[in-house]
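Hi L., both proteins are below.
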Amino acid sequence: MPLKPARYIWMNGRFVRWAHARIHVLSHVVHYGSSWFEGIRAYATRRGTAIFRLHDHLRRLERSVRMYHTELPYSLAELADVCVAVVARNGLRACYIRPIVYRGYGDLGVNPLNCPVEVAVAAWEWGAYLGEEAAQRGVDVGVSSWQRIASNTMPAMAKAGGNYLNSQLIRIEATRHGYAEGISLDVFGMVSEGSGENIFLVMDGVLYTPPLSASILPGVTRQTIMTFAREEGIAVVETDIPRGMLYAADELFLTGTAAEIIPVRSVDGIPIGSGVPGPITRRMQECFFRVVREGDDPYGWLTFVTQQAVRAPRARKKVLTGPTIVRSP
């Protein structure tokens, strides 16, 4: 899906024109994938433009960065203000927001710790990730021959740029086989996740989803669905899911910020249930869209965007020093 440029991107404390948001070709991130990012959506609710679970996304960003031995050069409160300002300054009502932290220009060895840590926040209009009809009709998926990265190779819980090389291979293979998405298994052969989504399945009225130990990203939308399900009296079980359960499931759906909630109608050509989105899937969609479209938010998940937020917040960048060397006595 081609990007639709907005007017401004925030970079390291100031707004720059979209076309001028550039980095050096020898920046560490270009060569070694040293970046961490979030995907966040803002919705045009009946109560005005609102960002969904902004603070939860930024907390996950902070944790992702920490797993790679660094820290955010701005506070979470400052970054939250920046995200709101980016949406307001670009005059966007509904959009996708991309905060990204990356190692910049300075040193080009594998050791990244002497490179500066840079931050940018962009936003643009972005439609349905898996197609306009996916949420209503469902999609066809296939189990990938590519395994999900193991948690002892790199932290699968981090939303890190380098991790998505694995996701790219899963998605490319799925596309070449005629599927909308691929489902990866973990190194033990259990169901993990899609290339960019978590996965849920329904059997006998119980909602199942893989645990964090299955090398999944701890999705914000995943946690949202688990909250809805429990409020609706639906049992939620986080457990290892063998591949066969995908084919035996009564319902199956994918969740993610970009994808939202997408029913799966077949896996490897085998219809799921009756081949149409099931009642629990539909109920989860209804709960989700009641919040993000109607603005009905008893959870405090929405951050509303006001025109007073147009000015760039005075975020002060921390000076991050090089590695601390601990010497033996």
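That was the first. Here is the second:
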Amino acid sequence: MQLSDLHIQVRFEEEWAAWPIAGLSLRQRLERVLQPFSEQPIAFVAPDAPIECKEHCDYLIVGGAFPFLDRDLLLQLCEGKKYGEPRVAFPSRRQDSGVVFLPANHAPVAADSFTGFLDRLFDLTDIEDAACLQEITGPTSLSEANQAAFDRKMAQVLREGALVIAPHQVWIEETVTVEAGAQIGPNVYLAGETYLATGASVAMGSVLRDAVVAFGAQIKPYCVLEKCKVGAGAAVGPFAHLREGSELGEEVKVGNFVETKKTVMGAGSKASHLSYLGDAVIGRDCNIGAGTITCNYDGFNKHRTQLGDGVFVGSDSQLVAPVNLGDGSYVAAGSTVTHDVPANALAVARARQAIKKDRAETIRRMARKKAEGRDK
């Protein structure tokens, strides 16, 4: 039902509009349910704003903050247009807030408050069973509404076939999609447009926001994923951080204490330990050794690192962007690579090791003497 001349007014404290409830603000929640009923924009006003209803217009006045207001109740109220009768729904055990439908062709109504507005209406028809009018009146009721929203979402996720080990220790925002057969461990928070495919698993302590996790992918304990994609069969973590723009192909492995940002990793590639990969395109079946970093920022601009397929980067290497490593190339451990490496070439960029026999005792003696001088 849409009433082209329906004027909708929502009355609650202005700062409450941005309060989040399971991932959606109070304002977003009300706009989603109310806007389909009218071609007119919704007016959000303070609770003490005067009410003025003119003739020849339908009005829907929402007096209170009701995050779970639903379409069915609004349809019941708007049916009053058929009979030319005003209708009201009150929250449980209260009659100083609620939702009122006032049909066109009524006498003009003006009031200084919502209760005064109710007093001006005659033959008001009450709608029973208004369980959706759980009201927010402050921080305590906000927390209760949050928990109620999370409980509703969890019931939906379980009903649709996901496997959740500890439902009361998992928080899933309403915009998240969890397919049947996905597995979720305790103390997990899923937010935004996150999507878990069938067979995907998210282990204890992980936080995902706007992340897509494909079939069979594993998110191990204590990972943070933001605006990223994880391919089928890939493994992330534990203690990994995928930042915005990260895309992992099939069977990719990103291990403990690895951070990625705007990085694409081709199928079968792996970065198992202690690395930072930023602004990089990494081909298929590459190995990124422990301690490798892409030096992508020069203080003013970000630069790209590009690896072909089958590249091996030894541990503790620095790839100074912009730089390209060709297919099958090899970077020796401890190298600082500042120039492109051709396909199948070996890059060694480190100082030659020197051995000074019996020098260790001399160094220790000098260090002791210096320490003794400081102690005097």
